[in-house]
What we know:
By secondary structure, this protein is of the alpha/beta class. It has twelve helices and eight strands. Helix content is 43%, strand content 15%. The chain has an eight-stranded parallel β-barrel with strand order 1-2-3-4-5-6-7-8, surrounded by six helices. Helix 11 links the parallel strand 7 (218-222) and strand 8 (241-244). Helix 1 packs parallel to helix 2 and helix 11 packs parallel to helix 12. The protein is globular and about 45 Å long. Bound molecules: 2-phosphoglycolic acid. The site of 2-phosphoglycolic acid has 13 residues, from strand 8.
Amino acid sequence: MNINRKPIFAANWKxxxxxxxxEDFVKSFLSKTQGQSFSCEIVIAPPFVSLPKxxxxxxxxxxxxxxxxxxxxxxxCSQFDSGAYTGEISVLMLREFxxxxxxxxxxxxxxxxxxxxxxxxxxMKKAREANLKPIFCIGETLAERxxxxxxxxxxxxxxxxxxxxxxxxxxxxxxxxxxxxxxxTGVTATSQQAQDAHAFVRSVIAELYGADTAGRIRIQxxxxxxxxxxxxxxxxxxxxxxxxxxxxxxxxxxxxxxxxGSAE
Length: 264
Ligand code: PGA
């Protein structure tokens, strides 16, 4: 953590929680955060169908004003504007539900749905056109790490995924470093492994966009973050928050990660 960058803790619910479970979670979570102020940003990324419920719960219906300072993220978006793309959701549709962030390039999208760096890049551009803030995910597999390809894999994902994005786009982008072998496995990268990868990612951003942008961009760690390891990970100088899957499905553990991870 670096005091010049506000940490960002984002819950990635994946394909969990329809509208009624979203309501249960949010009510319980808000009862914990009530009256507290946090020096971090809190984001929830529910499935698409739960976005209207989440928007209702977090925004006062009359004004559309965010009453709880919790930002809403989508887990994906289409790279196209509209038309014959069965099953897809456009960035403008997301904007109607106060969505501010969109997770792009998640390893599950890459591995299961065949999203290439080029597709992810097209989505990044589409998100920025609609003024959505991408949470741009990158990370290596265990085989890539063990064969010494960590840096080349990350460099390719970054240069291809961010192709043609401007300095201004980068000011609105968050990077999530998520080693694939740590996602949903209970195996967390050691804080040293995570810090080394984050410092490398920041150095590549510095090469592409200059030291100022690199110093400002937030890089989250993701992969089996839990209440018990959040503080140690967040103490690393280049780690600026977390993208949390499994442990963000329970209000109490998401809350504890935020409290433990953002304590100064
Ligand atoms: P996990 O998932 O916390 O369950 O490992 C993280 C993610 O996929 O973003």
